[in-house]
């Protein structure tokens, strides 16, 4: 790819006077040697799978094999039908959709890793809820996925996207940044605003540990996805309003690398610390071993 930093990404998109998503499609086509139409169709298939996962999470039994999680997205949707959520309609819908996709993942359903399976709910939660809210066609959201991919490419090549390497900040944090920046791009913000959204989102995720109870991508992974969707919406709105990340976004990515490298092994997906080693976490692990 012809860029290595978020700053370069914004500069090159701006120079072409196009959105990050459309510019990334051109780059991807050149990189792969495939026509743009072929690359677009592949990404469109990914978005279709995301939408299918949202529906499945809201209509089918998503109880995981461990029995620890499932159907919480349906509970949130039922709550939304009974009363006005404190979050408001838009944010609570994104939250419930993110939860739905994450529960599909935990119940061995089909999802798209964005950037990992553990953070698979954030981008669909943001994208599908905003599509319904703003009346966007699927094609528009496909360009949004290219924008998210461009942001994820920079993060992956300069820091982490794996919880085992850099803690949950690397998975959930990256997904929040990808969703926030892409949403700015979708709503007509400038490439600079999109990059500021990434920095704003990542700063709010620094230091987040990876502490899966029982070693499963369920607790607390699933609820972190729905909180992450809400954070992405907030970061996008702030950037579109003109709020900037005082610390440049590329420097925030570098700090995520430094924090993740300094994080103890027990807090990097080993289930050796954090919530996984609480009395309840240890009890759950012991019960799973005897099943």
Automatic annotation (TrEMBL):
Write out the catalysed reaction: L-serine = pyruvate + NH4(+)
* UniProt entry tagged with the keyword Zinc: no
Q: Which domain of life is it from?
A: Bacteria
The cofactors required by this protein are:
[4Fe-4S] cluster
Entry-linked InterPro entries? Fe-S_L-Ser, Ser_deHydtase-like_asu, Ser_deHydtase_asu
- Keywords attached to this entry: 4Fe-4S, Gluconeogenesis, Iron, Iron-sulfur, Lyase, Metal-binding
The record places domain Serine dehydratase-like alpha subunit at 17-276
Pathway the protein contributes to:
Carbohydrate biosynthesis; gluconeogenesis
> What is the enzyme's class at the highest EC level?
lyase
Q: EC no.?
A: 4.3.1.17
GO MF annotation terms: L-serine ammonia-lyase activity
Q: Which residues form a coiled coil?
A: none
Name the family. Belongs to the iron-sulfur dependent L-serine dehydratase family.
Q: Which NCBIfam families match?
A: sda_alpha
Q: Which protein, by its recorded name, is this?
A: L-serine dehydratase
- To which species is this protein native? Paenibacillus gyeongsangnamensis
């Amino acid at each position: 790819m012809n860029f290595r930093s978020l700053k370069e990404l914004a500069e090159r998109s701006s120079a072409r006077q196009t959105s990050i998503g459309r510019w990334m499609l051109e780059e991807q086509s050149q990189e792969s040697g495939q026509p743009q139409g072929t690359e677009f169709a592949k990404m469109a298939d990914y978005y279709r799978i995301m939408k299918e996962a949202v529906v499945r999470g809201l209509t089918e039994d998503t109880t995981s094999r461990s029995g620890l999680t499932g159907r919480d997205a349906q509970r949130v949707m039922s709550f939304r039908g009974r009363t006005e959520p404190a979050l408001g309609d838009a944010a609570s819908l994104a939250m419930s959709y993110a939860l739905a996709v994450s529960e599909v993942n935990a119940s061995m359903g089909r999802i798209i890793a964005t950037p990992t399976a553990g953070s698979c709910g954030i981008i669909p939660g943001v994208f599908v809820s905003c599509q319904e809210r703003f009346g966007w066609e699927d094609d528009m959201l496909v360009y949004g996925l290219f924008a998210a991919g461009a942001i994820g490419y920079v993060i992956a090549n300069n820091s982490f996207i794996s919880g085992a390497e850099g803690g949950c900040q690397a998975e959930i944090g990256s997904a929040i940044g990808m969703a926030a920046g892409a949403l700015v791009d979708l709503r007509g913000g400038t490439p600079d605003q999109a990059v500021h959204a990434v920095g704003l989102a990542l700063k709010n995720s620094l230091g987040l540990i990876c502490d899966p109870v029982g070693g499963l991508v369920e607790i607390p992974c699933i609820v972190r996805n729905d909180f992450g969707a809400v954070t992405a919406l907030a970061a996008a709105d702030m950037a579109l309003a003109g709020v900037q990340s005082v610390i440049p976004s590329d420097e925030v990515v570098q700090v995520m690398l430094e924090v993740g490298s300094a994080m103890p092994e027990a807090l990097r997906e080993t289930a050796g610390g954090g919530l996984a080693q609480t009395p309840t976490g240890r009890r759950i692990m012991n019960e799973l071993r005897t099943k």
